[in-house]
Specification:
226 residues, four-stranded antiparallel beta sheet, 2 domains, Arc Repressor Mutant, subunit A, alpha/beta, five-stranded parallel beta sheet, 22% strand
């Protein structure tokens, strides 16, 4: 499992569902931690950072709705509620407490996977839309197209700034050389490779072993900030 895989916390008092989702989501590329109660979930949240919570509404003790409301007072971690209550008022209550989405029980695991991916794409886009992106000792301003390493500005050509923005717009996605072309006359594949190598010399400590702008053999390139 890659270290940058999204980390999901599944909270459900039904052990069978917890284990099913842990196995299914793990098989689909996610890191998964489970908890059986809101109290266990709070303990997990105190020690780990999560990209999304899958949270059952009807739990003994503190309910999923109560935990959602409490978390929203201090965290914007995405929350997907699992609820056996299909009535509209109950769904609305969950959204009013700050949940990002809900899924009535019983559900197909594949639908849960689709909803999780939708939420993560949206939140990733919101993070990308922030004015500044940090990776290593570099800082890139998406509004001005300017790059710094530490406190020193690094000159980027217009094309290099354009490439940075393309990668930042699709963080974590593999971009083909066609994706990276500058319009219809964007040059040959070799030209793209040369441009990438020049950009690497400005953002990587070791351009021959890049950490951030990595090659996906036979396909293209992927940008992986910290």
């Amino acid at each position: 499992m890659p270290d940058d895989a999204a980390h999901i916390l599944v909270v459900d008092d039904d052990r069978r569902i917890r284990e099913l989702l842990k196995r299914y989501l793990g098989d689909n590329g996610f890191r998964v931690t489970v908890a059986g109660t809101a109290e266990e979930a709070r303990a997990r949240l105190a020690g780990l950072a999560f990209d999304l919570l899958v949270l059952d509404v009807m739990m003994p003790g503190e309910t999923g709705l109560e935990l959602t409301a409490a978390l929203r007072g201090k965290s914007d971690v995405p929350i997907l509620l699992l609820t056996a209550r299909a009535e509209t008022e109950h769904r609305i209550e969950g959204l009013e407490q700050g949940a990002d989405d809900y899924l009535p029980k019983p559900f197909e695991p594949r639908e849960l996977l689709l909803r999780i991916n939708t939420i993560l794409r949206r939140t990733r886009k919101e993070e990308v839309e922030a004015a500044e992106i940090f990776f290593g000792d570099c800082q890139f301003d998406t509004k001005s197209g300017r790059l710094w390493r530490g406190e020193k500005p690094v000159h980027l050509t217009e094309r290099e700034a354009q490439l940075m923005q393309l990668f930042i717009d699709r963080i974590g996605d593999t971009l083909t050389r066609d994706d990276l072309r500058d319009g219809e006359n964007g040059g040959s594949e070799r030209a793209i490779d040369v441009q990438i190598n020049r950009l690497r010399r400005k953002i990587e400590h070791d351009p021959r072993n890049p950490l951030y702008l990595q090659t996906v053999r036979g396909i293209g390139y992927i940008f992986k900030p910290d």
